[in-house]
Structure formats: structure tokens, C-alpha cells
């Protein structure tokens, strides 16, 4: 199977071929976006007798019957009877929207696979589905199909239809013939359908080369990493993608980030630095052509050298260069992205130059006006230390985005998805999983896999990548080794000797291994340069232009050759000592040249003696420059002997100098340790963000570790993201079971769990783990003996002592006090269909076990064949003694669910037939019906009853009301449950229903959360919590278990991946706003945040934060479009409209009491803003810039309207301005406010008024145009926000910048924040931070340090977070309403750290310790 697909792909590929008269004559299907495959005889029939002379000429009419709108199209024949088969390929005039090509899979080894096909026999133009079983191939090459049962046969009209193989999840071939009057038909295998002239084969793999931008369609498995890294590129000027060699850093940027950057409107350029080139020259060469393209190579080099000298001469040149680059003609409006590839080679080969290049890049990157020049670079973790200086250490720590090697499901997607994207190419079943398993944990495994796949593609057999070819290659590692040996063996003896010398020079020792060393062709002896050109066509080495334009560089195709090619590895090992010395010599030589060839930089002493010895032993392997350096050192050493005697007198002075140097060295060590901690903290924060969604406990631990290692903006961001995800966390347990969770059973008290999981690579194999102690610790786990291979149903006894698993042919029982072994309960022999439904249940006293089997086949459901009767078996447990079960306990058909009631002698059963909405309760032994329960017998099907709590409850709905009732020998009392929407299912015990209102789930991304409610079905009590989830990552599973908490509320156990998270759920009311509750209407949060008001088209509603009380009052019909504001004391709510001013003030405690309000503004003046000042005093701003005050409690006018703008006559321009004015009260200063009229917003004037005296209390503030709330998007809140003490004012300007003003001084503070245009201003946070919200993301800006911390914060409904529904408390907590409930987030990183440590404090697991980079403290994060 090439990739996981659904049958929706089959529907979207189906084609219906029509004749000239419009009648349907056959079928076809898409094999490419614009290519249809069908039978040649169908085309001939469609074109009619006139086509006999040339049936392949002309066009054919067709349509897509299963695509919305059934779009029609025309197509012409482009391939006719290819290979002599009854096949025609038709080219569409253009691809059709909504269609998809069908994936072709192996059509040979299909015996026993089930199939389905859609045909159009006579009288069935809308199509009929046929299904059956595939058999083997015939002598003609066709594959036999047999239709099963009494369903439709494959007859005339099925010709050309695609045959879908359910086992392989793809099209296995095309229907070509059928026996008349028989149920046997034939298909042409998929390999015979492909005409290579029409579907030219493309290799979707890269060999040893990294992915490029034009290969992005085949780059898979890194979707989350691409989103993360590109998000980092958007957020900051410099991004370092750091990861081990061979993990795919360059491919990620080239095939993932760069296409997204171009799609976002950025310019993209690239540079690659190699040792030997000056840092300034490298950068100048990359940018000079962008600034001023020169006509000739000589002029280009001259201009680049001139620019390099400028960069070396002045530290302000990079900023000037950035301004010119972003302002050049034709520059992209979204800015420029500079990609620096493989920076580690430069860092290790020329560390001083690399540090200078990184400094230049850091100075070059940044904002110029509204545009940004960004830099993204790749490197290995070890190279960071060489790059970092005290000047750039903080930038480097914040810039790192860690990239781990692909593994598991992501690696499998990288293998399978390129094949799925290439029509007519597929894997032999099981081969992708075998390749992934063989890749294992090998370093650089993705490169090895890509090369092996490339070689497999070259050896494909009839479009199939086969096991046989893979075996011939020698697997993943053998493919590379075999190819390298073949390439070398093809050379002559002399060429092989030169190749050996060249390959040794292209790698250098590092640690216990070797890494690549790109080398200039011009620095090689002629015979080695010739060897490079001999090896390049075979791709063992690659040639590319030098970054400074001085010829070419040669490099190993991939670093994995140094590890996995035994011949090269041996050569490198044999020459390790020489090459280690030579690399040190080259470093000394570069340093000598960089310091003006100072004599002091020449070799001496033992270094010179060793150089002389090495030079004599390897005269052919050193360059002329290296030889000259050693000879000059020899001459200088002879002169130096005469000078040494003089140096003895200076020994005393040198001793004193040594003390000073030791102190300096200690200070340098301290700085290095600090840099290492910054780097480690950044890597830990990145690792926390990158951790798969199925490992939430480890992601949280790494975020805590990052924060405890070093407090930086990046670690604060990682911490905030985990805090938002885990606001209700009680405990976090990592690696509790093996593999990813697939199901969970729980006792009602939550103290015993049995978790089912699929081990990695286990296919459909399930293992079970017993978990206890999760509620209060310590957690204990035991693996249950054995495993389950097929579909199953499971149950855990209420007392937690027994666990049962039922499959169609067996039932197994574990005694959980000794879970290593299970027993198989006795079952009678019965014939059951393959698709059988099974259920298993323990009685409430845990002494009995019930198992049922029912026929769930489609034939039974459709009535096309008799159903196999339902069966029930019961046992006494733990003895295993069979109990008497009435033969007629279950009806023969239609049983949907069966379980014990609260009485162990009775069972309840529900029915799948909508005409039977009630449940029936019967005696187990006699089958006697005791009673029915649920909705009325004549209720509609949507009122059908459902069994809950393991059969002890029935729940049903009548109209808008929902009820529950306990079940036993006699029914219990009926309880009406709260009316809730967005039910998501039950938790593990079935005693609670789970609700997910609004837009809380982020299942399209890994590692998120869901805000949910849990309804206790016995009592109707409601609880809310935030559950972490895995999103779309492996390990995503919806099962949770809820149990009562000792101090009230609930404890909820959430299995994710291999982790168990425990969260608390608190009681909540179930009152909700009526008529929607989503983004419609107008909202306003009470000043004391105790309630929220909502204005709809016909009512004013007030809801308290606990959701226990809702008040409402009707409004006149002409108040549609009105707005709502609170008085400062929270006692009155004022309803007003822009066009006709104030309407009425309503008492918040009693909406039936209200006060009519007068019109305060001129008749033709529009009301822009109404705010509470103090008590019931309010201020109203008009569109003409006038302001008035009134008392909302009495309707009395306190201050008549007066002009609050510098030019009161500036009215005409004001009326043409799109937007609204704003008035914002100044906290702590009664009667004072900031006023921005419509006209003033254009010229950036902010008036600061004492509204009681009608005078300015200070001069107006002037800046750029102030952003104003749109007249149609007033829900976006204010664009001005005061600090809590009223001394600071943040203003969102029209260009997206948010400067902060010192109000009393009238001065703008430095370092304004810049945000996207549609971002909302929320308020001032703790320690001078500023909060904004946009695109579901909360950002905490620190203007003083120029940093920003972001986290995704998704309101339940699509309501913006802004000043209208959010507030920040004096102690640094953000409170906001999202329409479902009030949320509280502590914005202080220290408080977040303490809260998470209180829930999840623990030591590292061994696996987590292996993730810790150097510089991480060894202690536990919360210790």
C-alpha cells in the first residue's frame, strides 16, 4: 500500500462515458489529474459506427457522477490499445475541480482480497456497486473476480470501471470482461494500464542529493517541522535550523520553508560558505548581484570585492545594505529571506571567519520600515559554540530551531507519500515497513533511505518497487555501499589511486568519526581535480560554484559515505593521524595569513618538528601553500634560536602576566558556560515545541527544563505554550506503556485502568497494560500477558479485579492480581460471518460476565441475505462457570447493544431499527420481558434510547429535552438533564457524556488541547476542563476516564500516545446565551469581570461567569445593530446605536428596571464610542469629535457636547474617514480620558482630556495615523490601552506599530512593538509587557528587550480576544470571556513554572536524559 487512503478518492476519480446520443455506455477513472483510463471498446461504442475507420480519433463526452454537481467534460484519445490490451487513455481539455486521481496498486498478488466496483448496466445510469473476492491471474493476463452472495453481478456497463482492492486501499485494475449469466468477471491488472508515453515515469526520490524547491511535491513527513520553522522565520529575523548530520536540514529549508516563503510574497536568495573565503566576501558575493547586477563576470567580482571591503571597514554597513536591498526596484513587499546552507562546515573549518559571518548576518537581518530581511541557516549542534560570541549569544540562543531525525510514522510517510503522488507507481505490500525497520536509528537514515529508494526505482518491475530488487541491493545500507563500490571499480588502477587520495581529502576527522570537507578544485593537484570530474557524473562527489565566484568546489555527495562505505571508512581510518595534523596545519596557515603573515604565527618547536616529518611522509598530499608555510617556519625557527637567550630575562614579567591571563581565562570560562546554558535552554525549548503530540509529559518536562536552565524569551514561550495546554493538570506520567494508545477501560472510581496500545511496527497487534495509582501516585504498571491480533471488545470489572477481551472466536479473562496469564472461557462452536459485532460486559457486582455476537454484515443490514441469529453467553466469574441464558433472550436480528443492568440477573438491550426507539429489560435466565424504557414507543428515530454506564442507565431525548433513568429489575426515577449541544461521546465508564462546544479542538495540529464539558448522566451535574490531546499526531485517541475527586469536582484520566495525563474538572453551570452563542451579537465584559452582556437583534442578555444565572430582556425590533456598554461600577448596562445615539440604561441586577436616555449629540452626528468613567458616569464620543457626559442611572446630562479635537471645523474629512473614533478612560484619574476622533486619527492626534472641566490635562500626543476600529468590525476592541496606573498609553497605529507613551511627559518610549494589521490590542501585562491577540495567538511583547512570546489561545467560539471581553489584573493574570466560559491565564512565567511544577514535578526518565543537550543542569527541573 503506497499510502493510507479512503474510498472518497475512488468516488472522486469515477468517470461515466457517454455516447454521442448522451446515453451512458461504460465507465472510466482518472489515473492523472487530466488523464482518464477506460476500455478501448467503450470508446469505440461511445463514438459509434462512424468511428470504425479510426476509432482513436476525435473526442468523447464524459462526466464525474460522484463529484458534487456531476461536472461534464470532453476528452480526446491519446493512447489506444497500448501493449495490445483493451485500454484507451483520454486527455481532458483541462483538469476538473473536485476530482482526484485514483491510486494504482499491485494487481498481481491479490488472491482473497475483497473488491468493489461501480458500473452502469442497462437501466442503471446512476450506477450500481458490485463487490466480491479477487482470485488469481489467467493465461490471458486478466485477473478473475467473483461476486459474492446475492448482490449485483458484474455485467455489461461495468467495462472500464476501476476495481478497488479493500486490502491495499487502491485500484488494482480495470474491469474488461464478464461471463454472461455468471457471477465471474475479469480485470486487467493496473500495471497493464499505464502507457509510459502518456504517464512518463518520474523518480520521486533524491538519491544522495538534498531536496530542492522543485522537488517539494515529493518531500513528506516534515509537515509539522515546516510549519514550525516557517513560523519561526516569520517571527524573528534570524533562524538557525540545528540538527545532527543527515537529518535533512537543507531539504527541510529548500523543499519546505523556501516555497512557503515565496508563497508568502518574499524574495529568496542563498549562499554557502566554504573554508578559505573571507566572511565579508562570502556575503558580498551573494548580495552584490541583487543590489546592482553587473553585465560581466569580471565586473561582478570587482563589485563584490568592493562591497566586501566596505563590510569589513564599517559596522554600520550591514544596516545600510539591508535598507538598499529591501528598497531596490522590484523588491518583494513581504521582505527578503537569505538562506545560508551548511554553516557548520564554515564554522569548523574557519571558526573565526564563521563568527564574523554570523555577526554580519545578525547585523544584516532586521526590519526596515514595514519590510523585514530574514536569515535562515542550517548547522549541527556542535557548530553553535564556534559561532557564538558575547555579542551574538542571546540572538543565537533565541534563534535555534532543533530538527530531529525522521523516525516512525513520519519516516514511513516520507517513504510512501512520494510513491502515492506518482501515478502508476507502487510498493509491493510490506516493503515500506521493511525499509523503515531496516533504517532503524542509523545516523543520516533519511539519506540512506532516499538513496535506496532511488536505486529501487531504477530497478522497478512493471511499475512496482519489489522485495526482490530490495534484496538484490542489500537493503538500506547495502544500496549505498554497493553503488559506491561499483563506481570505484569502474575506474582504472591509476584513477582509483587518485580517487582514494581525493576522497580522503574531502573528509576530516571529528570526534570518533569523520565529516565532509568541501574543497576548491583549484587547490587540488591536477590528478585529483581530474579524479573529481571522473567521479562527479556518478554522484559520489558533487561539483558546485564557489560562493566567492573563484571557480568550483568539490564535496562528498553525502556524509553518510564516511560512515557506511567500508572501503572509504578504512582509508579514512588509515590516514586519520595525518589528516588530523593537516587540518590543524590549515587552521594555523589561515590564522597566519589573516594576521598579515606575522612571524609569531609561524610554526615552532615540536609543532614544526612534526610538520617536517609529516611533509616528508606525504609529499603528494599537501598543497604548495602548506609546503611553503612549513619551509618559512623552518627558516624563522633558525633565526629564533639566536633570540631565545634574550627572552630569559623577561621570565619574571611573564610570570606576572600569567596570573592576569589566568583570571581572564576564568572569566572567559564563565562566559562560555553562560553561553552553553543559553544554547542548551534554547534547544530544550525547541525540543519541547517539537515533541510529538503523543508525548505530552515529555514535552512538558523539556519546557520546564528549558526554563530552569536559563530564563530567556524562548524558554518563556515554550513554558507558556505548555501552561496554556495544561491549565487543569494534576499529574503527568510519561512512557507508561509501550506503543501508542488505542483504547482504555476504567473502573468507576478511576483507580484501575487497562490501556490497549499498538506497539511500534506491531501492525494490528494490541497489548494491554494494567495501570493503578494514577490518581494520587505513585503510578504502578504491569503488562498483561499475551496480545490480541484482531478486532476486539473489552471490559473491566467495576471492582478492578478482572479484565475480559472478546473477539469473534474467543473470550479471554485476566485476573489482575496476577495478570501475566489469561484463561480462555468455554464457548460453544458457532458459525458466524466475518463481519460480526461483539459486546462484553461485567455485572455491577463484578460477579458475572456477558458476551454477545450479532451479524453486522451489509448483506444482513440491506436484507439481501438472511442474518445469522444473535447469540449471548454468560459466565460466573472468576470461577468461569457457564450460566443459563434464555435461548430467546435476544431477537434474531436488530440488536444494537446489550449489557447488564444494575441488577445482575437482568440485561438491557437496544435496537438498531429506528422503529424500535425503546430499550427492553429482560431476565437473563428466562428471557422474560420486565419492562421497556426510553422515549415513547412511537417516537422519531432521533429519540432512540442509548445504554450508558455499562447498562445501568438509559438516556434519551424528546424534542429539546434530554432524560436519564437508572435500570435494574425495576426502573428508577427519571432525571431531566441540561440541554447541551456538541456532544462528542462518552468517557470510558459511560457514566459521563463528553461535550466539546464551539471551536475548541485543534485536531489538525499535533500537541494541542480541547476545552470540554463532562455531564454526569445520573445527576445532570456539569463539569468543565481542558484536556491535552495529540491532535493529528500518532497516539491521538479520544478515550478519557472520569471519576469523582475527593474534594469535589472530577479527576479525568487522559491517555495520549504512551503518556497518561491526569487533569481536574470543576463544576460549572449550564446556562448559555440563547440564539447562538457564537460570534454573532455584541459582547461587553463587566468592569469587575463578574458577568458578560450580550446584545442580539432582539434581546439584551446577561450571564454570570459561573454560568448559573442568565437574565434577559426583549428589545424593540428597530434596535438591530445596537451596541452595549457597562458603567464603571457595573450596575448599569447601556444600549445604544451609532445612528440614533443612546437608547436606554438597564439595571444589571434587574433588567426589568431601566432609564430612558437623552440624545447628547447633534442630529446628524454618529455615535462612535461610549465608555464608563466613574460610578454611573459615562462619556460619549461623536463622529464630529464632540464629547458629552451623562449619568446613566438618572439620565441626567453632566456635560453638554464639546469639541475634543484640535481643529473643531475639520468635519468634511472626518465624514469621509472609514472607521470610528475612540475614547478610553484613564485608570486612577477620575474624569480623564484619551480621545481620538475620526479626523484626529488620520493625523495621529491623541487628545488627553479632563472631561469634567472640558480642558486638556496635558498637550496632545502626536504620531502616525492611529488605527481605528472598523465600523463593521467594532468587536475588535480599542486601539488605545492605558496601563493599570494610567501613566503609560499604548496606541495601535495604522501601520501595525504599537508605540507606548509616557502620558505625563508626553514622550514616546523607545522600541515600539510591531504586529500584523488585524491584531487586537489587549492590554499591559506584568513588568511592562504588552499583550496582543490575533489569528488565535496570544503574544506577550517585551518592548524593553525587543522580544515576544507567543502561544495559541483558542476561544471556544470564534470571538476575538480584545479590550471588550478581556482584562488584565494587577497581579498579572489575563481574564477573558469566550462565549462558553471565563478563562484565566497567569501571564507571569514564574507563576506558570510553579503551577506546572506543582502538578508535574519529577525527575527525568532515561529516555528524556538522552535528549538533554550539554549545558543542562543534571538535577530535576523542579528541584
TrEMBL record:
Residues 204-599 form the Novel STAND NTPase domain. SUPFAM superfamilies: DPP6 N-terminal domain-like, P-loop containing nucleoside triphosphate hydrolases, Trypsin-like serine proteases. Signal peptide: none annotated. Gene3D superfamilies: 2.40.10.120, YVTN repeat-like/Quinoprotein amine dehydrogenase. InterPro entries: nSTAND1, P-loop_NTPase, Peptidase_S1_PA, WD40/YVTN_repeat-like_dom_sf. PANTHER family: TRANSCRIPTION INITIATION FACTOR TFIID (PTHR19879), TRANSCRIPTION INITIATION FACTOR TFIID SUBUNIT 5 (PTHR19879:SF9). This is Novel STAND NTPase 1 domain-containing protein. It comes from Streptomyces cirratus.
